[in-house]
Amino acid sequence: AAEFHGGVGYNPPPQGHFNTFATNAITLSSYRSLIEQPLGMYYWGTGDWMKLLAVDWELLPEGNPDTFRVYLREGVKWHDGSDFTSKDLLSNFYLGYLFNWAVWNYVDKVEAVDDYTVDFHMDRPSSVVPRYILREHIRPYSVYGEFYEELKALLDAGKDLESAEVKLLRVRVSQFRPETYVGTGPFALNPADLTEAAITLKLFPGYWDVDKIKFDAVKLYNGETPTISPLVMAKEIDYAMHGFPPATVKQFVELGIRIVRPPVSSGPAIYFNYNIYPLNRKEVRQAIAYAVNKDENAEVSLADSARRQKYMTGLSDNMLPLWLPEEDMADLEEYRYNPEKAAEILTSIGFKKGSDGVWLDDKGKRMEYDLLVPQEYADWSAAALNVANQLTNFGIKTEVRGMTYSQIPHEVWNSRFELAIQGWGASNPHPHFSYYADLITYNYASGQGPGMNFPLVQQTEEFGEVDLENAILASADGFDSEVQADSVRQLAKIFNDILPIVPLWERYGNNAVLDGVRVTNWPDDDDPIWKNNPYGDNAGIMLILDGTLEPVK
To answer: Is the dihedral of CA 110, 111, 114, 117 positive or negative?
Structure first.
């Protein structure tokens, strides 16, 4: 049998499960699109779409659109044999409403025109709505339909998200445990093929485009970087997207394994708990930004696959010129390594160094903190150790606290941290998604918990009082990118000044690609497919779906 081998971290059952609306689901990262297929995937290099469960879409009415209409592919079967129809989209997106999906900031209702046409009505028309909808993985009505029908009845009766009945339903959906994934993708998952070590996905013969798929199975080894690295070296894996450290990448190259470096538009940042004084003072965060040599941090973490964030706006340096005029970019503070400047800032607000070299704040309290990091992420762990070392040398005593990657989001959401390494930016081509990740995901506005508790209404020097949550939504309002650019410019300049989080570097993939053992026909490095973000519209997945990748004969 022709197999494609990848690697991805997951928690096997009973902790891991198959309800992708709930936390701890076995989502399989980018490979999920091979099971729970989305409506489409995007080619970043050309701006075109790969049409999957949708055959077309349009904005209505022309010129003044408030509806995004999607035309679904007919004749698609779910893995359980049921037909894919508009009902699946209704149940999928309404249950997403139950879980505060960001698309509902713009959409107020979803309606089926017929079995294969669905209208998303926008009460806040926005150019990001198509991407939110087209990239969502679609789950089946046959599995989740009764919850949807119950929710619809509650909404029709005038209940809202704050009502006791709807809250109770959310708890029940979260606790629901389907037996397996039911998708429309080319590969199906049988729980019998899932072990602690690996998952084998088998070709689904009823897939709507089965003739294009050249593999009988996709085998995914379970693990983060330390587990996956030896498997790549043993040539057991054809494609790996982990954050491999520089020394490991050198070994891969010596073994003839190719490294491709697609842009990721994100990276690690230092997050602050705003409940803790003086981390809630912008001067302290600015001082920390100056006290860390971010070029060094990038080098020790990922070498050629990490670059210091030059503009420090919370948005990829690659995207910034598309949204900010040159004169605004020239005004931005780069926060180049300057420990003297860091010391000057702290002294100016009444801080001083104690006899042991540790800074004391203006209340005489020592500046010493824990830095929380996902221990299995080799690149982030290296970044955290380096940051802790640099800050300690500067006089802010910092100790790294490693924790398993699946637990960290809960710690951050529950404000059980002082400093933490989490991601900034997003694998999406519009700035809205990056600012949502920077300021909402791990903050009280996400609905997941108090998080870093950074106040989203800020008094700024240049713009007066600004509601940043509203500015993030406004950055995607309407369909005129020049109007949106005003909000992006405001967000970039405010972020650069108050540094709600401190981005360390921007990541480029160091994706290991093995050609000629099991899989062949990988495109050359200059192929536009490698402009795709590996965590957004994954090139490897799209190359399986369009039939480019083939088994070695």
So the answer is: negative
Chain centroid to Cα 246, Å, comes to: 23
Task: Compute how many other C-beta atoms are within 10 angstroms of the C-beta atom of residue 530.
Answer: 21
Tell me if residue 298 falls in helix, strand or coil. Answer: helix
* Residues 501 and 272 sit within 8 Å (Cβ to Cβ): yes
Helix (H) or strand (E) holding 254: helix 246-254
Q: What is the pLDDT of residues 149-201, one digit of tens each?
A: 999 999 999 999 999 999 999 999 999 999 999 999 999 999 999 999 999 99
Query: Nearest-CA neighbor of 163 among 171, 154, 150, 172?
Result: 154
Say what the pTM is. Answer: 0.84
pLDDT tens column, 94-149:
999 999 998 999 999 999 999 999 999 999 999 999 999 999 999 999 999 999 99
Chain centroid, CA 67 distance in Å: 26
What is the token pair recorded at 391?
């800050």
Q: How far apart are CA 371 and CA 364, in angstroms?
A: 22
Compute the distance between CA of residue 230 and CA of residue 125 in angstroms, rounded to an integer: 49
Write the DSSP assignment of 457-473 as a string of letters: EEEETTTEEEEHHHHHH
